[in-house]
Amino acid sequence: MSGTAWNPSPTEQQLIDALAEAVREALLRLREETDESPQTVALVTTGDLLRPYLSVTLPGEDPWNFADARYAILGDEHLAKLTEQWDLLGDPSELGLADLDGELDRRLRLMEQALRDLDCAGAFGRGEARRHVLLLTETMPPDPATSGSTRRLNPAGDLLQCWIQQACEEPGLSLDLVAAEELSETPDQVLPAPTNALAQLWGTSPGLYLADGTTIYGPHSLAERNATFEVAEYAPGWVLIGDDSGGIGYLMRAGGTIFDPTLEPRASDVYALDLGALEEDVAGVGDWVTDDLYGWLVRR
Questions:
Q1: How far apart are alpha carbons 295 and 116 in whole angstroms?
Q2: How far is residue 110's CA from residue 105's CA, in Å, rounded to a whole number?
Q3: Gap between the Cα atoms of 238 and 53, Å rounded
């Protein structure tokens, strides 16, 4: 996607609202037919970006095998009503390869926001119950482009980590041995993750040191780095999560350890800013980097 945070246009928001309502109606049918709560809920489009359909797996089913699930397609009579509105987005067959990637991202964003709006309304449970369902946007056949939305839509934890290890279409990150050794030497300084995105990363590695100088702090070094640069004083509400080893820091909004879908997608945004020029309006003066920290690091 482009180098700015994503925001839907008014027309796109209308489609998001209609899509969320169609999914809500489909989920009502699920509740009428079974007492079981879903373990995965996916909005799925095709490689040629046709109107999405809803697919759900239940506990006991393979969470990543939607084709064999009892509800491989759920409530499609509701989503079918959106076909004309969806097609008004344009004909993907008329796009070149580069433009097609951008269009895929746009449509996945609309699907992601529809699921997020339902999540904000409590459609998938709250608190501990929410941690037992994974929300996804998917393509059929699978495409790595869907990975970022899954990370933005879900709290860090065992279920998301299982998806990263077993079903994510992009390469994973490896344990950083230097960061792991540092963590083992400073067990009394460990802090909880201040953002959901950082918690996801720490589920794989307690910080990263990349060959290009990119550094992401671990739970043992985050507090010291933020204290050194007086982030709480100069950029209140933000947390320094890393740097480029050349004077540029990477900052995120300090959302806390509890996943809150109402704060997304802004809570996933990463901005770059000169560490000597920290200020409160990080989003206004900093350079937007990504809203998928894990994926950005994978690609680096």
A1: 19
A2: 9
A3: 38
CA angle 231, 161, 181 (to 5 degrees): 60
This prediction's pTM: 0.92
> Tokens 């998001």 — which residue?
16
Mind listing the pLDDT tens digit of every residue in the chain (300 residues)? Answer: 335 677 888 789 999 999 999 999 999 999 999 999 999 999 999 888 899 999 999 999 999 999 999 999 999 999 999 999 999 998 888 878 778 888 888 999 999 999 999 999 999 999 889 999 999 999 998 888 889 999 999 999 999 999 999 998 888 899 999 999 999 998 777 888 999 999 999 999 999 999 999 999 999 999 999 999 999 999 999 999 999 999 999 999 998 777 889 888 889 999 999 999 999 999 999 999 999 999 999 998
CA distance 144 to 135: 16
DSSP letters for the chain? --SS-----HHHHHHHHHHHHHHHHHHHHHHHH-SPPPSEEEEEEETT-PPPEEEEE-TTS-TT-GGGSTBSS--HHHHGGGHHHHHTT--GGGS-HHHHHHHHHHHHHHHHHHHHHHHHTTTT-STTGGGG-EEEEEEES--GGGHHHHHHHS-SSHHHHHHHHHT-SSPPP---HHHHHHHHH-GGG----SSHHHHHHHTT-S-EE-TTS-EE--TTTHHHHHHHTTHHHHSTTEEEEEE-SSSEEEEEE---SS--GGGTTGGG-EEEEETTS--S-HHHHSEEEES-HHHHHHH-
What tokens does 96 get?
A: 């070149």
In angstroms, the CA 288 to CA 251 distance is 10
